[in-house]
Structures are given as structure tokens and as C-alpha cells.
Amino acid sequence: MQSNAALEYDYTVAKLFTYTAILFGFVGMLIGTLIAAQLAFPELNYLLGEYGTFSRLRPLHTNVVIYGFTVSGVFATFYYSAQRVLKVSMAESKFLMFVGKLQFVLYVILATAMVVTLLMGITTTKEYAQMEWPLDVLTVLVWVLWGVAMFGLIGIRREKALYISMWYFIACFLGVAMLYLFNNMEVPTYFTSGGVGSIMHSVSMYSGTNDALVQWWWGHNAVAFVFTVPIVAMIYYFLPKESGQAVYSYKLSLLSFWGLMFVYLWAGSHHLLWSTVPDWMQTMGSVFSVVLILPSWGSAINMLLTMKGEWNQLTENPLIKFMVLASTFYMLSTLEGPIQAIKSVNAIAHFTDWIPGHVHDGVLGWVAFMIMAGLFHMAPRMFKREIYSKKLIEAQFWIQTTAVVLYFTSMWIAGITQGMMWRAVDEYGNLMYSFIDTVTVLHPYYAIRALAGVLYVTGFVMFAYNMVKTMTSSRELSEEPQFRSPMA
Amino acid sequence: MDIRELQGYASFFMTIFLVVVLYGYIVYLYRSEKKGEKDYEKLGNIALDDEIHSEPINDSSANSDEKKERNK
Ligand code: HEM
């Protein structure tokens, strides 16, 4: 490859995915707040006819925040950081540039079609795999294009060693590719019913317990390879870069990587404890979930130790605050998950609000915090302007941190109360409570969660505003900042 | 022994095998660094020094040149 003096990193594709991350983040979290409010105040189900009911909006929430917001964030940070750690620019290959842009265009079509079809009630009804088969086909295409861009960039790189973030991005690509295909094997009911069914509506090729197993093999690995692995990729790049401190132990990062790969794949059956899957498999799910603490904490502690001797940055730089809190929340949820995967604990926790509580300390405190911090770090480099307002970031940080705490504490209380009430029996073995008793008791906690939603979305709007202002009207920078992101 | 039991045993022994491999990897990492064959920790600088014109920490073209030298 010829190196010429004018060569620069090209952030075109990274910018495009930044826009969609902001858009889908806002929409997805707004819907999340609406459904949280619906659980507290059921009248809110009747605002928009069938399109406004909880059952329509819940899958819309999960799909938009996962495949809209998080995946956009993953693509944006990938197209930004991969060039840098490989020391090669997208501008050096017309082909890769084309692939990146094509991937974006198809992705936007896919995401739009996903929102429309789910709103219309077109769904396979499998959690995190609700998209119908034509959209699955498009998903595969988008994913393959990402792979082409990824391995294309790797192919023309100057930096021989792949930085640890690249390992994680590659794992995200491979893991999702494999499991998505397996889990979405489906046939339109038209073919299974001799012409009575529909072309558009499909059923899984597996049935019964097997279907559940494949479903949670994927379902849990969606957590692993969408909510964990690429987010770890982000923190391994952005925290060292923003703080100017090399990762504390590179060897530990390699070990945690292989540990995570090895263990995560087999933890999925903890979603099926006490169900009809073989006993040994349930035990395996529990055991692997507990072991999973080690590689997870390996990465998180590595990140905290990276800040060794530099903790003053925590008070001075709000982006460091976001990232340090993100890795702390990562530790919290990777301790909480294994606890819930212990069979006796699961007997109380399963089907209760403790589960969404656990999900959201992870996604709000870890995933969304890390994505926002990453995008903030990228903004001055991509748009060549300083970040519009530091004060706004500080305020956003505190509002959203309060929101996360309110969310998970209310759901802990709600979930455990619920679990205890469901199984409470009187001296003759009769159930002491009916379902509606639990609903009455839980009402205040649902209201608190809805409030948490309002706070979190407010913080996200502040983030979006700050980003838009940074893109359009902030002070221009004459040269690229090396470590700490400049902000007004 | 029915198929489920077999699956259980297979899973158990595969786990043991992979644990051994993972521990082997740890030993390998530390040993190769001690012998001075590899320096993993300097790779952490890839994230810090990531300008397009900065020297690669592990240069891909330099290495292939080295190989060519050796193959002469
Ligand atoms: C304003 C922020 C948010 C609020 C208020 C919110 C609210 C909710 C509510 C009410 C549910 C349904 C719980 C139930 O059925 O009982 C839910 C589910 C879920 N949300 Fe969120 N959410 C927010 C942000 C996010 C984000 C950013 C993500 C991911 C990046 C996310 C991922 C999920 C997932 C995966 C589920 C399914 C959980 C399960 O099946 O146990 N949410 N959310």
C-alpha cells in the first residue's frame, strides 16, 4: 500500500451509523418508557388502537434498542476504531468503501422494515428473533457485508498484530452469524399446511423442547455477542485512548477473551431451568453461568486497573466517568446473572420483574453508557469540532445514573416480592395470593420504573442534542486531539 | 446408556479437555514472554498510538520483508 502525505482516516460510514444509533436510541427508549408506563397505568394501552398495545410495543422496544440502537453503535464504533487500530484508512480501498456504504443502505432498509412489520403484528413470535424470514434474509446480507468490510480491512492492514478490540469484533461477527442462522431456520406456514397458511408467516423448523433449546442458545448468546463482546471491544479501545493509559494487562485481556468465548456459549440453558430440557443440561447452564464471572470480571477489572494512578481523570473527564461506571455496571450484572442462574434462586426469580431489572442494569448502565461514551469520544475526531458542552454531559451522567439505580432497585424489590408471593402457601398448602394481589402490591414499583424511563430518555435527549450541536455549531478544531476529548 | 446420558458424558469430557487447553494457553503466554520470544504488553500501545502515519507496533510489511530475507 502506498502511503501518501494527505492520507487520512475516512469516517463516512462511522458517521452514518452514528446518526442511526442516535435516532434508534431515542425511539427505542421512548417506547421502553411508554411500555413501562403502561405496566403501571394500563389505560395507556388504548392510545393508538392495536398499534399502541403493550404486546405490540414490547417486541418493538427490544428489537429497536438491540438491532437499531446497539447494533448501529457497534457498526459506528467498528468503522471508527478498526481503521485506527489496523492503521489503514477506508479511503484506501474503493471497494471496501462501497461495501460499507451498501451495508448502511441495506441496514436502514432492514431496520425500517423491521419497525413497520412488527408494528403491523407480523412476527415469528420467537424472542429476539421476531423478524419474519424475508427480513432474516436481508439481515444475513447486511451481516455478510460487515464481514467483508471487516476482513477486507484486516487484509490490507499495516499493523500486523490485531489489537484486542478486533478480536472481540471478530467474535461478535462470527458468533452472531452462526447462531442467528441456526435459530432462524423456519418454514412459511403456506408450505407446511398444503396451501392454507401464509407465505409471510413462518414457523420454526424445530419443535417443542428442541425449539426452546435452540432459541435460548441464540437468545443468551445474543446477550453475549451483541450486548457483551462488541461492547468489550469498545471499552478496550476507548478507555485507554481517552485516558492515555495503555490497557493494564494485555495478557489478561487475551485470557479473558478465550475464557469468555469458551464459557459463554454453554450458559444459555439457564433460561430453561426447571423446564423439560435434560437435567444435566440445566446443571451445565448453571455451572457455566457461575464460571462466567471469571472472564467477565477479568475484562472489567483490567479496565479499572488501566486507570491506576490516573483516578483524578474520573473527576475531570466526564467520558471517563461514563466508561468507569459502565465497567462497574458490567461487573454488577455479570455477578447478578450467575446468582439468578443458581437453580434455587432461579425458582424464585424466573418470570418475575427481577429479570428485566437484571437486563436493564446491564443494558442501561453498561451497553448504552459505553456506546454513548464511544460516540462522544469519536465526535471531535469525526467532525473536527470540540464537544459542545461538558456541563451537559455531567448533568446527563447524573440523571441517567439515577435512572439506572431507580430502575434496577425497583425491579429487584418487585421481582422478589412477586416470586415470594407466587409461591406462598398457607398451612394446608393452598396458595395464599391470587395474581391480582401481586399486581396491586407491585404498582408503586412499576411507577418508579416508569419514572426511571423518563429520566433515562431525558438524559438520552441531552446526549443527542449535545451530539447534534457538536456536529453543527461547536468550535472547530485545528488538529486532532490525541487522548482526552476536548469539550467546551 | 441412552443418548441423553451419552450427551452428558460427552459434554463433561469436552469441558475438561477445553479447560486443559485454556490453562495450557496461560502457560504458553507467560512462558513465551519470559523466554523473550513475544512481548504482549507492548501491543497495548496499538490503541494509544493509532495515527495513520505512526509506526506500526508490529509492522506487517517489515515482517514480510524479514521472512523474505530468511527465505533467501
Ligand atoms: C429508557 C430506557 C428503557 C426503559 C424505560 C425500558 C423499559 C422496558 C420494559 C418496560 C420492558 C418490558 C419488561 C416486561 O415485559 O416486564 C423492557 C424489556 C427489555 N428491554 Fe428495555 N427499556 C429501556 C431501555 C433499554 C435499552 C437501552 C435496551 C438495550 C440496549 C433494552 C433492552 C431490553 C430487553 C432485552 C428487554 C427484554 C427483557 C426480558 O425479556 O426479560 N431496554 N424494557
Helix content of chain B: 55-70%
Largest interface: A-B, 38 and 31 residues
- Overall pLDDT metric of chain A: 95
- Under CATH at level 1, the class of the domain at 307-488 in chain A stands as Mainly Alpha
Annotation field: number of helices of chain B: 3
* Helix/strand order of chain B, N-terminal first: HHH
- Supply the number of structural domains of chain B: 1
CATH second-level architecture of the domain at 307-488 in chain A: Up-down Bundle
- Biggest sheet features of chain A: 2 strands, antiparallel
Q: End-to-end distance of chain A, in Å?
A: 39 Å
CATH superfamily of the domain at 307-488 in chain A: Cytochrome c oxidase-like, subunit I domain
Structural class assignment of chain A = mainly alpha
CA-atom Rg of chain A in angstroms: 23 Å
Bound molecules: protoporphyrin IX containing FE
What is the subunit organization of this protein?
A: heterodimer
Reported for the largest beta sheet of chain B, the result is:
none
CATH topology of the domain at 307-488 in chain A: Cytochrome C Oxidase, Chain A
Q: Averaged pLDDT of chain B, please? A: 81
Features:
heterodimer; A: 488 residues; mainly alpha; Cytochrome C Oxidase, Chain A; 17 helices; B: 72 residues; 3 helices; disordered C terminus
Characterise the protein shown here.
Chain A has 488 residues and is mainly alpha-helical. Chain A has a domain at 307-488: Up-down Bundle (Cytochrome C Oxidase, Chain A), CATH 1.20.210. Chain A has helices at 12-40, 54-86, 94-120, 133-155, 164-183, 189-192, 208-227, 229-243, 250-264, 279-291, 293-306, 312-316, 318-341, 343-349, 354-383, 390-423, 435-472, and strands spanning 186-188, 202-204. In chain A, strands 1-2 form a two-stranded antiparallel sheet. The longest helix of chain A is centred in the last third of the chain and has 38 residues, at 435-472. Chain B has helices spanning 3-34, 45-48, 60-71. The model of chain B is unreliable at 63-72 (pLDDT under 50). Chain B has 72 residues and is an all-alpha fold. Chain B has one domain (3-71). Chain A binds chain B through residues 3, 7-9, 84-85, 87-89, 157-161, 163-165, 236-237, 240-241, 244, 246-247, 249-251, 254-255, 258-259, 262, 266, 278, 280-281, 284, 483, and chain B through 4, 7-8, 11, 18, 22, 25-26, 29-30, 33, 40-41, 43-48, 50-54, 56-61, 63. Bound molecules: protoporphyrin IX containing FE.
